[in-house]
Each structure stands twice: as C-alpha cells, then as structure tokens.
Amino acid sequence: GGGAKAVGGAAAGGLAPEAANFATGFAAKGVFAGPFFAATIKKFAAFGFVAPCGPCNVEDAENTGMCQPAGTCGGQVVGDCDEYGAASSKLECCKEVIQCGQTIRNGSYISYFQNPSFPESDKGTLPCNIKVEIMKNVCQLRLDFLEFELPAPEADGKCSSKNSMVIMAPQMPLGVLGRTKNNGGLCGLNTGQHMYIPVVQGEQVQLVTTLEGYGRVPINRANLAYDTSNAYKWNIMITQIDCGPETSSYRYDALVDATPGCFTGLKAPEGCLQYFTEPYDKISSFNFDGFSKIAPNQDYAICIRPNTDYFQGLTIRSNVFKMPVGGHDSKVCGSGVEIVNKQTSKDCCLDPSSSYLGYTAYQPYSKAKYEQKAYRRYWCGEHLGPEEQISGGGSIIKVFTGENYKCTYDPVGFEIEYKVDIGH
After folding, report:
1. How far apart are CA 339 and CA 329, in angstroms?
2. Residue 237 backbone phi and psi in degrees, to 5
C-alpha cells in the first residue's frame, strides 16, 4: 500500500491535517472544495471515521476511495488507510470503478463510472448502461463530471438519442433537466459540471449511454473546433449522500448537529439541481461548448449558499450570454436590454418559445434614464442586460428553456461568473 490518508483523528476543537486535505484536495478539479465542505469533514472527524464511511486518497480527485477491511475490496486498492477497523484490523483504501452493465450497491458511497478505456478515449459503437442502487438513509446522489466529452448536440440543441447519456431517476420523471424526458440528456462538453438527484432507499437510478461511433466531439470550449477522430470519454464521480436515520429531521442544520451521516454536509437544498458554496465561481449551461445551441425544454434551479453570515446577494457577470427568444419576444427582446415587451405589455422572455435565467436584479431603466434602476426578473436575448453584469439579493438562479424559437444570433446558452456580496 501507498499510505493513503483517511480522514479522522482530529484533536478536540481542531481540524486534523488529513481532514483539511480532504476538504481542499479537490480544489484543482472544483469538486467538494471550500470551507462549507471543510466544516462537514470536521464534523466527521469529531466522531472518528470508521468503515464504511472513511474516505481516503482524497488528495487525488480521480482515485478517492473508502477505507475497507484488508482483503475485502472488490475494486482497486489504491493505498492503505492510516486508521484501523474493529480489533485494530488493517484497512485498505478501496476505489470502486463501475463498468458497463454493472450495478453500484452494497455500501458504495463513492464510485466512478468511466468509459471502458479510460483514461484513454474510446471510438466506435458502444451501449453502456449502469444502475445505482440507493442505500439506506441516502436522500441524494451527487454526480461530478470530472471528464465528459461526447459528440456535440444536434442542430436543434438536443442530444441525439444515438450519441448521448441519459440519466433516469424515479424522483425526476420529467428528466434531470426538467420539463420533459425528451430534452435529449447530456452530450458535448460537461467537464467540471455537477448535479444533484433526489432519491429514496431502494430505488435504482440508471445512466444509459448510447454511442454509435459517429458525431463530432468538441475539442474544448476555448478552441471552437471539432475532434475529427470522433473519440469520446467520461469519468463521473458518484457520491451517495447519507441524510441520517429515517426518524431524523430532514432540516439541514439538525442533521449536521445530530447525525454523523456519510457526506451529509454535501446535501443540497431541496429542488436544487446544482449547488455552489464558494464565494465566487463559474456556472455554465449543460452541454455548453460556445457554438452548439442550448437544449430546449429545461427547467431547473441553481442554488448558491456561501459560507458567510453576511450574505447580501450576488453580482453576476456574463462571459457568454445568448439565451434564445421566440414568438412575440423575437422582435423586441432579442437584444437582452429591454425589460418589457411593448408589443404584449408583459415582461420580456416569457413567451413559451423563449428561454431565460430567472434572477431578480437591477438594471438601468433605459439608455435615456441610465441612472434610474429598475427591477428585472427574467434575462434573455444576446446580452445579460445593458452592462453584461447584474446584482441582486437572491441566492437562486432559475434556468428555463423553450422551444421552436427563431433568433438572429446563435443561442448557445450561458457561461457566467458570480461573486457573493457581503455586508454587515
């Protein structure tokens, strides 16, 4: 073994070095990083980690495992744990990698789902499906897309049924992106994305991947070109979040104070598909590559809970913002500057064909009255308001996309950055 670090052994009132490593070990990949997660690990450390909830090798985002008794690992042994099990028995750091056709079960809080040749890419036809069996007391799955490069969406923004990954969850009958099961799933580039899926014990969540061996794969978001080899790859970290005994309150604060559940502190507020806890971060639409259209028929929430008592709101700035408009919004609201559709006397962006980010913030009332600010709730068109930057007091961003829109610009979705505003 290579001396893998397990989290535990914190002195009273302090955070053990191993726990600190766990809290910050994913910083390079943007997974689980930050003080919010650190507080969770400190809670675990106070109780002392024992199998089956003993994360190890946490400095390496692609090789994190769980401490298990020596000789019982059914996956890859990636080191030894510094902690010991019952009767001082040796524990090994066990990483579970799920292959096509397999099921995650039997106490697997952390697992990896990878393409067969990972870390290399694959080519050719590949049907690859897995199931995640939900354990006792688990209320959420968190999926972290450490790497995700599939063929780009079709011309209408939807993923082809022959080149996509579809996530089927019983608690989300309209699909993980909302509105309809037919919004195409995931494809293109989603490296660095994450999502939460509500679950209950005994359910099975399925990841259904279908690849026909054709379809151009975007190289990256900076280089708006295609990989002519049609190669694809993915590496998805799947975490089951234990919300505590069924008799416990499901209110977050009560769980943290009363229950050392496995990864309880990662739990997102109810109804949040994505959950950010850093004071600043970058957020993009799913399948975003800078040139493919955003997928239609989405309806989900992005929640931001910064680790501060002095939260005043958010400042949001766009790097890329091109949300489609349609119907009665087409002629008036496409610029992204207008608040009200003068043809309908309703807010811009609310035609059923249009798409928007929902966030209550200020923008200048008009060019003629630039110093006067007006509230605006819906943001669509090819600019995030006249300044490409907005500020408001909320912590939830709503994403909604329509269909059958017609734009004079390429509606590629959004890539935005937020900053938490604080005060006393």
Report:
1. 11
2. -90, 125
* Secondary structure element (H or E) that encloses residue 375, with its range: strand 373-379
Question: 56: pLDDT confidence band, cut at 50, 70 and 90?
Answer: confident
How large a percentage of the chain has pLDDT more than 70?
A: 76
Give the closest residue to 210 by CA, choosing from 268, 148, 151, 158. 151
Q: Within 10 Å of residue 367's Cβ, how many Cβ atoms?
A: 8
List the one residue out of 245, 238, 228 whose CA is nearest residue 206. Answer: 238
Joined tokens for residue 132: 């995640």
DSSP element (H, E) containing 37:
helix 35-47
Whether a cis peptide bond, with omega within 30° of 0, leads into 153 is no
Q: What is the pLDDT of residue 407?
A: 87
Maximum C-alpha span of the chain: 77
- Picking from 382, 368, 276, the residue whose alpha carbon sits closest to that of residue 325 is 382
Cβ neighbours for 118, distance < 8 A, ≥ 6 positions apart: 147, 233, 234, 235
- The answer to whether residues 205 and 132 touch, using CB atoms and an 8 Å cutoff, is yes
Whether 26 contacts 16, CB under 8 Å? no
How does strand 280-284 pair with strand 389-392? Answer: unpaired
Report pLDDT digits (tens) over 380-420: 999 999 999 999 999 999 999 998 888 889 999 999 999 99
Task: Identify whether the C-beta of residue 264 lies closer than 8 Å to the C-beta of residue 255.
Answer: yes
**Is 183 within 8 Å of 296 (Cβ atoms)?**
yes
